[in-house]
Amino acid sequence: MDEISNICCVGAGYVGGPTMAMIAHKCPDLEVTVVDYDADRIAAWNSDELPIFEPGLDEIVKGSRNRNLFFSTDRDKGIREADVVFIAVSTPTKTYGIGAGRAADLKYIESCARHIAEVADSNTIVVEKSTVPVRTADAVRTILEASKGKGVMQVLSNPEFMAEGSALKDLENPDRVLIGGERTPEGQRAIEKLAAVYARWVPREKVISTNLWSSELSKLTANAFLAQRISSINAISALCEATGADVDEIAHAIGLDRRVGPNFLKSSVGFGGSCFQKDIYNLVYLCAHFGLEEVADYWEQVVAMNDYQKRRFSRRIMEALFNTAADKRVAILGFAFKKDTNDTRESASIYVCRDLLQEEARLAIYDPKVPAMQVHDELKIVEGSGQVEVCGDPYAAAEGAHAVAILTEWDEFKELDYQRIYESMLKPALIFDGRNILDLDSLREIGFKAEGIGKS
Ligand code: UDX
Ligand code: UDX
Q1: In whole angstroms, what is the distance from residue 308 CA to residue 195 CA?
Q2: What separation in Å is there between the alpha carbon of 272 and the centre of ligand 2?
Q3: Average pLDDT of the residues in 321-337
Q4: pTM (2 decimals)?
Q5: Exposure of 91 in the CB half-sphere (CA atoms within 13 A)
Q6: Are 337 and 435 in contact (CB under 8 A)?
Q7: Which protein residue has the closest C-alpha to ligand 2 atom 2?
Q8: Measured between alpha carbons, how far is 3 from 255 in angstroms, rounded to an integer?
Q9: Phi, psi angles (nearest 5°) of residue 85
Q10: Which of 162, 218, 250, 338 to mutate to test the pocket of ligand 2 (most atoms within 8 A of CB)?
């Protein structure tokens, strides 16, 4: 087998787009084509307004685009010409049939595998980039092998560990690159070829290989552990509010223990994003499928705790509003699931907004990167219905409000003129910091009734 010179990625989303842009940036002699069946998305990748916001993404896309990085809807051509085809299509939670609400919906992976089987030749290496249940590679391989006269294509698992908002930094300097493959000479050769691409900028010792199933399951396990850390500290935050302890002080104190470590211990209104909940449900479903009910119950609690945390936050707002929110204006600062992204999938902000809308509050929402249409879509509210106003700046959102809730930790929220905000609000002026980014004592000095997470 020759070296890799041409790469195709199916799926121009939050994973496929930035990952391929980084490969093209680091390997100018490789030709990288990202294909997608969504023509609008491809047009956006080829325009000045990229479809996703990530710090640093514009620069590297614009530096490589139409040189060795291409975005196209011509999936046949992209796949046919490639030595390696990455599958980075979405794998949402199933909403129908067996496993609904739990299992991953693999229909896009399957149709993608069928398409590759039809178009690619036998030397093509097929790489699962999407997060999939363990043993999905079996299904992909069966589909590929069933396509007559094509020989045996190699299937690798190469999960992506980058986080949104820091995607480029994570891709440039990953903690590790994981490649799973078959323990056969052909499988090992395929692993080596893909490893050689990453080794162009990642230290060789950080590129590790495992068998296919370990690789697939490592991704689910990594996300489950990360989410579990957040649910654990959030569980303690509830106890802090009841006892007068401070959750940030606790996180600092326990994080100094090297066995625990300081990262990913920030208590919040709850985790969001397209991965954590979906991947834990996926893990829960797998455990139940293999008859491991206790293991399934254990992991399910991580999501249950997160739901509790989101609901608890809405309830605290309601209580401070004397349990009547009807027609009261509440300013929502932040709609993305974390800072530095325009992604709103499973954002905690959506859940809090829905709870308040059920109580007939009027919401004034501001997020620096999320467009109004996306807010209306997520809340399933018709634009102009009056219950939700999307504002162009945070001061406009807060004007005349009974309460302000901070739901995304955007840096700009730390720098706002809270005196000005206070003066423009109805009194008592309530502020709820769902991200613990503000100094509650200073807010209280201004006159706010201020509450954070895990603080009294
Ligand atoms: C990724 C992973 O692939 C998913 O498994 C992981 O758990 C979360 O991140 P992401 O890139 O965030 O998904 O998804 P999305 O932004 O929805 O991108 C997927 C793209 O694939 C979309 O642009 C969609 O149009 C495209 N697609 C989907 C195809 O081109 N063909 C298909 O058959 C299905
Ligand atoms: C996650 C994993 O981190 C990444 O490795 C994987 O590839 C995809 O899933 P992502 O969902 O993009 O990445 O972002 P992440 O930084 O993990 O944040 C997820 C959610 O947890 C966000 O809502 C964030 O605000 C929240 N969070 C994170 C906390 O509430 N506290 C923390 O300490 C860290």
Answers
A1: 42
A2: 7
A3: 97
A4: 0.95
A5: 28
A6: no
A7: 163
A8: 44
A9: -115, 120
A10: 338
31 three-class SS: strand
Strand partners, 364: 331, 389
**Residue that has been written with the tokens 């045996």 in this structure:** 152
Which among 91, 108, 85 is positioned nearest to 35, based on CA atoms? 85
pLDDT in tens, 160-193: 999 999 999 999 999 999 999 999 999 999 999 9
Q: Which residues of 43-77 are buried (b: 16+ CB within 10 A; e: fewer)?
A: ebbeeeebbbbbebbeebbeebbeebbbbbbebee
Q: What is the pLDDT of residue 149?
A: 62
pLDDT of 144 strictly over 90: no
Q: Two tokens at 154? A: 């190699």
The H or E element that residue 150 is part of is none
Both tokens of residue 380? 């399933």
Going from the Cα of 10 to the center of ligand 1, the distance in angstroms, rounded, reads 8
Instruction: Output the six-digit token pair for 198.
Output: 């990453």
Q: Which amino acid is at 206?
A: K
Asked if 107 contacts 136 with a C-beta cutoff of 8 angstroms, the reply is no
- What pLDDT band is residue 148 in, cutting at 50, 70 and 90? low
pLDDT(1) > 60: no
- Give the atom of ligand 2 at the shortest distance from the alpha carbon of 131: 7
Strands 388-390 and 362-366: parallel
**Does the bond joining 428 to the residue before it have cis omega, within 30 degrees of 0?**
yes
Q: Which ligand is nearest to the CA of 160?
A: 2
Select from 15, 128, 230, 335 the residue to mutate for testing ligand 2; criterion: most ligand atoms less than 8 Å from CB.
Answer: 230
Six-digit token string for 340: 């530095």
Instruction: Let me know: does 79 contact 10? Beta carbons within 8 Å.
Output: yes
Nearest listed ligand to the Cα of residue 36: 1
For ligand 1, atom 33: residue with the closest CA: 108
Q: Which two tokens stand for residue 22?
A: 């980084």
**Average pLDDT estimate for 405-426:** 98
Indicate which atom in ligand 2 lies nearest the CA of residue 265.
Answer: 33
